[in-house]
């Protein structure tokens, strides 16, 4: 038969085909053992340590980008583990990677003075192991721990992979035409060449967002009801969430707090006038908010509410210490800005401020009294030189040299005042543009992620107002750094969205 003759004709090519594939995808054959989900997470620990958002407290934009990229990576890894998952859409990710002992710079990417560099790569793998290796290699992190953990796999030991030539083998286009395999370079080229545009993305994702929003509406109403009831019952100032948990998760947290309030109403009265914040650990934050750890049980929450009077005492001491520091620095106000600083407990922040105050006392920097009134500073522990933030406040390291600090503040004081004034002006413009955009597009809600600056938000809203976007009617729109439909139907668009077909 012609079919069987064809098979016989090409059967001798099978070893050649396997050899070709081995040259193109060496990891697929050398690393024959697949990873489990738990093993993949363990293998990526050096990566998570290098990009974890908590290490970017002084850099809100980079912190938010890493947090968003980690969410997208998590979805990619979950999809890889689903049965029958053979082809995934290539996913481009951007991470800011801290310089650690494992990833010394070789000059390939520019490193900022803050000690991190931007890394962009596209995932187009089909299994966990090759995905893990791609991520580690892209970030120039060691893969030795992955190799050593797979030496017992079928086939040659993984360390033999090091003896392969580093130069990638380039195959003629006719190979892909003959075998029917897809050219990976062509796939990557297409991914990087086509940029998503705002209108095309909204057109493709509007239906999904509307459905998710519709299903979330009852939960949203329940969340509002629970929050209002607890605010009234406990006489709280506000209830916040540190992370972007979904509506169902937030409702569950409020139900848990409500049950505790029914059981220990007297104890929870200690929180009167406070802001409660659901976060990763329990305590009081440097900003004076009562932190309820979402992994803690009611017993831990109860103990926290019982200790609140002692926390209030420490808070008063902290405020007195801030005033003392301000007097020594010519009226420069010490502030704690949640969005721009690491999440610190009240005890940690008091300890830092106390160290800084004692150093100032010893140095006796000669600032003229009240000469710096109206200016602001935040204290941090991961810098060794002062800086002036674009928003107008000074970043002052705890261990800063006194003489350098004196000269720096005096030389930048006028610039700081101008930036603070500009920040206030931008805030007013931003508020007006948000209201105008909300009205024009009949949005239910328009907000931004903390890492999006007022300048970026202003630019984004101005450009949005020039368009006609019926897709947005009744939607929740979040201005971010990437496109996404959140689990509850919120639309996320990048502040610098593209309008029209563009190519790189």
Automatic annotation (TrEMBL):
Domain (DUF4460) ranges: 32-141
Domain of life: Eukaryota
InterPro entries (UniProt xref): DUF4460, DUF4461, TCAIM
Domain named DUF4461: residues: 196-498
Protein name, as recorded: T-cell activation inhibitor, mitochondrial
GN (gene name): TCAIM
